[in-house]
Write a structure and sequence with these properties.
99 residues
Length: 99
């Protein structure tokens, strides 16, 4: 997957043409995917600040993206991480209540 910057540059160049290029729709979809993957990467690299709400927000924003293997893989990892995190959050809350 090209970076979001590279895709944006391609889109910017395409606006200079006076023709509607058939691949622009796909290029825009790839740009959205690249931006989402970049957001996921940034959030994942900051484990100490990644919250349950952050994970939910990323999942919600990724649901509407066009299917693409890298997006689907990142989405599955996020969903797994969210499930495990929610489980541990519930356990911690129950232990605090029990005290």
């Amino acid at each position: 997957m090209p970076s979001a910057v590279e895709l944006q540059e391609l889109l910017d160049v395409s606006f200079e043409f006076d023709v509607e290029l058939p691949q622009l729709g796909e290029l825009r979809a790839r740009l959205e995917q690249a931006r989402w993957l970049q957001d996921v990467h940034v959030a994942s690299s900051e484990h100490h600040s990644l919250t349950l709400d952050d994970m939910r927000r990323l999942i919600d924003s990724g649901v509407g993206l066009a299917p693409y293997p890298a997006v689907e893989k990142a989405m599955a990892k996020l969903q797994e991480l969210l499930t495990v995190s929610e489980h541990w959050d519930d356990k911690a809350r129950n232990l605090i209540k029990a005290r």
